[in-house]
C-alpha cells in the first residue's frame, strides 16, 4: 500500500470516527423513546405512542449501521497502520468471519471508500428520520 492509499485510509477512518456523534444521538433517541414508552406509555395519546414506538423501531437498523461504521473505521485504521497488509488479506479475514462471500473479486480501495461514505450517509438519514419522528412524538403529546 502506497502513501496515497494510506492517507485515504486515514481520512476515511477519520470520517467514520466523526460520525460517532451521529450514532450517539441515534442511541439517545432510542433510549429516551423506550423510557417514555415504558414509564408513560399507557397515558400517551395513540399517535404519540406510535411515534415513540417508531423512533425505537428506526433505532434497530440505526444500531446495525452504527456497528458497521464502527467496524469499518477500525478496518481502515488497520489498513493505514499496516496491521492489515493489503486488501487481499482484509478480504480473507472477512471471509473467514463470514462477513464476505469467498467468490467475490477484490474491490479497489476507492470503491470501498465510496461504499463507506454511502454507509455514513444512510446512517445519517436514519438518525435524521428518527429525530423528525421524535419531534413529532413530542408535538403530539398533550
Molecular structure report:
The chain has helices spanning 3-18, 20-40, 46-81, 87-97, 109-140. With 142 residues, the protein is mainly alpha-helical. The chain has one domain. The chain is elongated, with a radius of gyration of 19 Å.
User: What is the overall pLDDT average?
Assistant: 93
Q: What is the first-to-last residue Cα distance?
A: 59 Å
From N to C, what is the helix and strand string?
A: HHHHH
Shape: elongated
The strand count comes to 0
Give the class from helix and strand content and strand pairing. mainly alpha
Provide the low-confidence segments as ranges: none
Main attributes?
0% strand, mainly alpha, 5 helices, 142 residues, single chain
Give me the secondary-structure topology.
Blueprint: H1 3-18, H2 20-40, H3 46-81, H4 87-97, H5 109-140
Task: Please summarize what this structure is.
The protein is mainly α.
